[in-house]
Automatic annotation (TrEMBL), chain B:
Domain of life: Bacteria
UniProt keyword annotations, A-Z: ATP-binding, Nucleotide-binding, Transport
MF term (GO), any: ATP binding
Designated name of the protein: Urea ABC transporter ATP-binding protein UrtD
Residues covered by the ABC transporter domain: 32-272
Automatic annotation (TrEMBL), chain C:
TM annotation in the entry: 71-92, 132-155, 162-180, 210-227, 259-278, 298-322, 334-360
Keyword DNA-binding attached: no
Protein name as catalogued: Urea ABC transporter permease subunit UrtC
Main localization of the protein described in the UniProt heading: membrane
Bilayer topology annotation: Multi-pass membrane protein
InterPro entries xrefs: ABC_transp_permease (IPR001851), ABC_transptr_urea_perm_UrtC (IPR017778), LivM-like (IPR043428)
UniProt keyword terms in alphabetical order: Cell membrane, Membrane, Transmembrane, Transmembrane helix
Listed NCBIfam families: urea_trans_UrtC (TIGR03408)
Matching PANTHER family: HIGH-AFFINITY BRANCHED-CHAIN AMINO ACID TRANSPORT SYSTEM PERMEASE (PTHR30482), SLR1201 PROTEIN (PTHR30482:SF4)
Subcellular location: Cell inner membrane
Length: 577, 279, 379
């Protein structure tokens, strides 16, 4: 704890005993009378055994009284007084202090009507299980009405966090120590600074050590030590930057003699500009990540279209609604498996594929096959289907958005450094998009179906005469493209709202991606999707989200004028038909 | 006064604006001249160092196996495909590589496609009307009126191609052969100096073929005609000079007899057929 | 027929005369029933109904504009709603300026939404719209200019067919997003509304509504005759030729892209005019008119009525919108099902539309009309 352990009464007694032994008369007694020693020792031992229970009980009783007083001091209305009470608890070195502080911070430290202090274990519902704050004894459930919460304000909250951090610095768990070190950045005061150096020396964990060094360095910097800046260089933590910025603005008086080089302000500035450089790189990485993430969504949405439109030449305006079906399948799976969102999501992948693929087959057999070779009519008819599907979902399920739960293993983020953390769900979707793309590539390049699809695309009559059942190939291809749309829906359910308009929001973008990449070229779709995503994210900070989207659309419109066949056009006489 | 009038007609004020309708200059030699033309699609050389010369008023047949580059050659001449290298001149004044399709068409190069393409929703008469050499800019087209002179000219061509009785019928209902003739008629309406005819007798009956042969030989002399054809019998019946294309270049050139006795030609083209006949 | 001046040619056609006759008779009848029959009488046509008819007629003009490019030029524009909306906005800006200082905030020049956004002066592009002549000119010029720019780029690079459809859709989508932004200066998602008067006539009076209905009818008649004159001219035949065999037309020496551009611009201007007539009758213009759904719905009107006839487009527009009025009144949820179903049914079973059914009955041999046969519709 913050102060060297205080000597306990028992220990004092033992020390007194040894002092007696060491004394001169005892030497004589050992030599002269064994009995005397025996009696003395017996008396001492007896006295101790007799006294021990009594003194322990006394100590405990007085301890509880003290603790009760400590907690009672919290139960005042003045926040300043509460602050002092918290300080007192910290100084008390009571082993239960950390628990009290945490409970107080969480609002779980409460007082019963009869003045006992309890810690609420779970404050959901009406009846709360509680335990005694002093003894830790479980007291069963109590009604929330019988309890008074000890309130705190933001200033107390900060104080509590710091206090807990200090307590945790000595914890055995490295995670707690790390969190505590994190917390102490910019919170170190003179008292702490003294003991911190020893703690740093003893700290085994390198990361905790670095943090504590930085925390100490901020304090030293505030005291005007130029050398402290060296410990802060390259750190991306916002508090470090705040401290350096203060120093750079000349708000801190340097302890170094005037005229001595280098000055505090200059050093702080150079450290800051170094940090700025690193931050720029970080921001670029972040933009790239968000761009790739958006791009992966576009790729997922468009890749199915790249097959139905690009390879088969069928315009399916209901593609967006197939995506929507995939997303709703995820939602339905989670409804079927309550409490297991992760399993439901995994199961939704094959199910979503199947549902969308079957819907795709129904659309192909029901409408598109009658409109072969009439692309504009196909466009209109499938648009009609998209209206029907949307309205169907609105009528059958709900016009409102549904919530799809993100499973535990997909939520949260990976912290790369202090300024950069990558959200996990986006990363999973990005990976998923690449896997889907690779799988499609394999299917188109390496399987019999892929070969037949390419044959039918290039020369239908010839393919048929070679015994390829073109109709079957049509159905399978369309099912594949539609199924992939379903997969896109499953992935999208993790990133956006699942509602009837989900598909509509993606259809124009998807077509843009396919056309931009070059129709009939899966690689083109991948490159187009990812690059459009990145372009959008790069534009967003200075143009705003809507404007960025407009700019991208206009860019593609102009681009298609320049290169009507997209980024990666198919060449040759056959392609010009 | 005449200067003012020339100012008033906007197209003629500056020399560079003088449109491409200026006559083809054939005083210094051939009407069509291709030199070292090469074009490739994805690395495949469809045309490879092709050299070809067509004289004014000539009827030339071009033969060659599939993939020899016949259609691609037509595409280059009419401006549909840009070659990677080489020269293409129409007469000695017009560099065709600097022009687009309508400009080349209005210079007097007419093309008949392999697959007959007529405007099926329009009548035979209207098809010919659209093809007629006229001011083809927007406003003149919008305000164009029919007059006796135009009618006479269309009637004349209708007679030539033997479709006078079907003038009011939609082109969509014509037989395959009739569509081919209508298309040739449309070319004639343009008063072309050079006619490019791609497989004119594909899918025709014997009688239709004879009529077509008559039609084409009748045109030669007034116009230069280049015929690409597979049907050897038909080529023999109309050809004066034959060029054999193979792998994008000229393999042989000469009269039908000369060409068909050339061993290389026999090997790559006639040979295959001779073998078939032998079987 | 061919020797007449191109503008007079439609008056020699039976179909045009019938169309004009029906249109004028309807206008006269509605006027009579509205003015001469006392309110409450079963035959009385209320101001509301007159207004509704006026709206249908402006939609009909829009459909004619779409049919001109789709039916005769083969260009399926999924962005004609954009031209309609731009014409509407130009009119809306004029009507906004007519409000003067009678707005909620009472600012002498600035429309309410600008005062609300704390703007202190009119954006430059709002100047001149207080003058009716200028505003009405802009109704034609703004859509025309957009069509000119867009078409110039698209047709020059030979973007046609499905590609063109997709990028026209992207165009109107981008415009919708743009007009939703408050910074654009067109009232954001609320659009322009609360109009008071047009050319000094109170927009809420039933006489003004009747006047607008009649003006829309006249505009439809003129637009129809203009389109008919274009499609029966040699230029119209070039369009049909382009639609069916673009490459062939090019080899005949026609600069196809210029013809496409000309007709596209004319069509956009007509759409703009339709929008301008629509706005004072419904009293509002907002970015939803730019939505891709609306644009594609227009195409359905034309498809249902029958492409490449012009009168079919009018029939389709009125039928679909009447159905919409009825449906949304009786069972609003079913409307999208019905609309979606219509798309499928018309394209699969009725490629020539209602006009095709009519023509089937009145079929004359050797018909020189350039309408589509079923086979050509498939091409």
């Amino acid at each position: 704890m913050r102060y060297p352990p205080v000597a306990w009464p028992v220990a004092t007694g033992a020390r007194a005993g040894s002092a007696v032994e060491d004394s001169e008369p005892m030497h004589a007694a050992t030599r002269g009378s064994w009995l005397m020693v025996l009696v003395l020792a017996l008396t001492l031992a007896l006295g101790l055994t007799l006294a021990a229970p009594a003194s322990a009980q006394d100590a405990e009783r007085s301890d509880d009284t003290m603790a009760q007083a400590l907690l009672a001091a919290l139960d005042v209305s003045s926040f300043a007084a509460k602050g002092e009470a918290i300080e007192a608890i910290v100084r008390s070195d009571d082993p239960r202090a950390r628990g009290w502080l945490q409970a107080l911070l969480d609002g779980r430290l409460q007082r019963t009507d009869d003045g006992r202090f309890v810690v609420v274990l779970d404050n959901s519902g009406r009846q709360w299980p509680v335990e005694d704050a002093l003894t830790g004894e479980a007291l069963g459930e109590m009604s929330r009405r019988d309890l008074d919460r000890i309130g705190i304000n933001n200033a107390r909250r900060n104080q509590l966090r710091s206090a807990i951090a200090v307590v945790d610095l000595y914890a055995a768990d490295a995670g707690l120590r790390r969190a505590s070190a994190e917390r102490l950045l910019g919170e170190v005061d003179g008292d702490l600074a003294g003991s911190l150096a020893e703690v740093i020396e003893a700290e085994p964990d390198a990361r905790v050590k670095e943090r504590l060094l930085q925390a100490l360095a901020i304090y030293r910097l505030e005291q005007g030590e130029v050398e402290a800046i060296d410990d802060l260089r390259g750190s991306l933590h916002p508090r470090v930057r705040v401290a350096l910025a203060r120093a750079a603005s000349g708000a801190i008086e340097s302890r170094a003699a005037a005229g001595e080089e280098p000055t505090l302000v200059e050093e702080a500035r150079s450290a800051l500009s170094g940090i700025e450089q690193k931050l720029k790189v970080n921001r670029a990485v972040e933009t790239l990540y968000f761009g790739l993430s958006l791009g992966s969504v576009l790729v997922l949405a468009a890749i199915g279209l790249a097959i139905t439109f690009g390879v088969m030449g069928v315009i399916n305006m209901a593609h967006g609604e197939l995506i929507m079906l995939g997303a709703y399948t995820t939602w339905a799976m989670q409804q079927l498996l309550p409490g297991q969102p992760g399993l439901a999501l995994i199961l939704a992948i094959p199910t979503g594929f199947l549902v969308a693929a079957l819907a795709g087959i129904a659309i192909e057999r029901g409408v598109i096959q009658f409109l072969k070779g009439r692309p504009l009519e196909t466009l209109l008819a499938t648009f009609g289907i998209s209206l029907i599907l949307q309205q169907l979902v609105r009528t059958v399920i709900s016009p409102l958005n549904r919530t799809v739960v993100t499973p535990q293993w997909m939520s949260g983020s990976i912290a790369i450094n202090d300024a950069l953390s990558l959200t996990l769900n986006r990363m999973v979707v990005l990976g998923f998009a690449l896997v889907v793309f690779a799988a499609l590539m394999l299917i188109m390049r390496r399987t019999r179906l892929g070969l037949e699809v390419r044959a039918v695309t290039q020369n239908r009559a010839m393919a048929r005469s070679m015994g390829i059942r073109a109709t079957r190939v049509d159905i399978l291809t369309f099912a594949l493209g539609s199924g992939v749309a379903g997969l896109a829906g499953v992935a999208l359910s993790q990133l956006t709202n699942v509602g009837p308009n989900l598909g509509q929001n993606y259809i124009i973008d998807s077509f843009m991606v396919v056309v931009f990449g070059g129709v009939g070229n899966l690689w083109g779709t991948l490159v187009a999707g990812l690059s459009l995503g990145v372009i959008n994210q790069v534009l967003e900070p200075w143009a705003g989200a809507v404007m960025a989207k407009i700019i991208v659309l206009v860019f593609i419109i102009l681009f298609i004028q320049k290169r009507p066949r997209g980024l990666f056009p198919q060449k040759g006489r056959a392609a010009e038909g | 006064m005449s200067f003012l009038r020339s100012l008033a007609s906007r197209d003629r004020v500056f020399d560079f604006l003088v449109p491409v309708e200026s006559p083809v200059d054939v005083r210094h030699g051939p009407i069509l001249y291709l030199e070292d033309v090469t074009v490739s699609f994805d690395g495949f050389k469809a045309i490879n160092d092709l050299n070809l010369t067509i004289d004014d008023g000539e009827l030339r047949c071009i033969i060659g196996p599939n993939g020899a580059g016949k259609t691609t050659m037509m595409d280059i001449i009419t401006g549909k495909t840009q070659p990677d290298s080489g020269k293409v001149w129409f007469g000695s004044r017009h560099d065709l590589l600097t022009m687009n399709e309508p400009q080349i068409a209005s210079l007097g190069i007419g093309r008949k496609f392999q697959k007959p393409t007529v405007f099926e929703a329009l009548t035979v008469f209207e098809n010919l009307e659209l093809a007629m050499a006229a001011d083809k800019r927007i406003l003149p087209t919008l305000t164009a009126r029919m007059n006796g002179e135009i009618r006479d000219r269309i009637d004349e061509v209708l007679l030539t191609i033997g479709l006078a009785e079907l003038r009011g019928r939609r082109a969509g209902i014509l037989s395959h052969g009739q569509k081919q003739w209508l298309e040739i008629g449309m070319l004639l309406m343009q008063r072309p100096r050079l006619l490019l005819v791609d497989e004119p007798v594909a899918g025709m009956t014997e009688q239709e073929m004879e009529r077509t042969a008559e039609l084409l030989t009748g045109l030669a002399g007034k116009q230069s005609v280049v015929v690409v054809e597979h049907d050897m019998g038909f080529v023999r019946s109309i050809a004066r000079k034959v060029t054999v294309l193979h792998q994008g270049g000229v393999l042989a050139e000469g009269s039908m007899d000369q060409v068909s006795s050339d061993p290389r030609v026999v090997e790559v083209y006639l040979g295959a057929e001779a073998e078939e006949e032998a079987v | 027929m061919q020797s007449r001046s191109w503008l007079m040619r439609p008056f020699g056609e039976r179909s045009t005369l019938i169309f004009l006759g029906v249109l004028l008779a309807t206008m006269a009848l509605v006027t009579l029933l509205h003015v001469a029959v006392p309110a409450g009488h079963p035959l009385y046509v209320s101001a509301y109904t007159v207004n509704l008819f006026g709206k249908y007629l402006s939609y009909a003009l829009l459909a004619v504009a779409v049919d001109l490019v789709w039916g005769y030029l083969g260009i399926l524009s999924l962005g004609h709603g954009a031209f309609f909306a731009l014409g509407g906005y130009a009119m809306g800006m004029y009507l906004m300026r007519q409000i003067g200082d009678r707005g909620v905030y009472g600012h002498p020049v600035l429309p309410d939404f600008m005062v609300f956004l704390n703007w202190d002066s009119l954006p430059w592009y709002w100047h001149g719209f207080d003058m009716a002549g200028f505003a009405f000119l802009m109704v034609l010029l703004i859509p025309g200019a957009l069509a000119l720019m867009f078409g110039f780029l698209a047709f020059r690079s030979r973007v046609t067919g499905v590609y063109l459809s997709i990028i026209t859709q992207a165009l109107t989508f981008a415009l919708m997003l743009a007009f939703f932004r408050n910074e654009m200066g067109f009232g954001g998602n609320n659009g322009l509304t609360d109009f008071r008067e047009i050319l000094g006539f109170n927009l809420r009076s039933s006489d003004t509504r009747l006047g607008l209905f009649l003006a829309t009818g006249v505009a439809l008649a003129l637009g129809y005759v203009l389109c008919r004159a274009i499609v029966t001219s040699k230029l119209g035949r070039v369009c049909v030729a382009t639609r069916d065999a673009e490459a062939r037309t090019r080899f005949l020496g026609y600069r196809v892209e210029r013809f496409q551009l000309f007709v596209f611009v004319v069509s956009a201007m007509l759409a703009g005019l339709a929008g301008a007539l629509y706005v004072p009758q419904v009293g509002i213009i907002n970015p939803s008119e730019f939505s891709p759904l609306f644009s594609i719905e227009i195409v359905l009107w034309v498809a249902l009525g029958g492409r490449a006839t012009l009168y079919g487009a009018v029939i389709g527009a009125i039928l679909v919108n009447y159905a919409k009025t009825v449906f949304t009144g009786v069972m609003p949820d079913a409307w999208l099902f019905a609309l979606g179903g219509l798309f499928v049914l018309v394209t699969v079973f009725l490629p020539r539309g209602v006009a095709g059914l009519l023509a089937l009955r009145l079929r004359r041999r050797g018909d020189s009309d350039a309408s589509l046969s079923a086979k050509e519709a498939a091409a």
